[in-house]
Amino acid sequence: METVGATLNELPWFLAYMATAVGLTLCYVVIYIWVTPHPEIKLIRENNAAASVAFAGSLIGFCVPLASAIENSGSLVDCALWGAVAVIVQITIFYLVCMPIPKISERIEKGELASGLWLGAASLAGGVLNAASMTN
Question: What's the pTM value of the predicted model, to 2 decimals?
Answer without folding.
Answer: 0.90
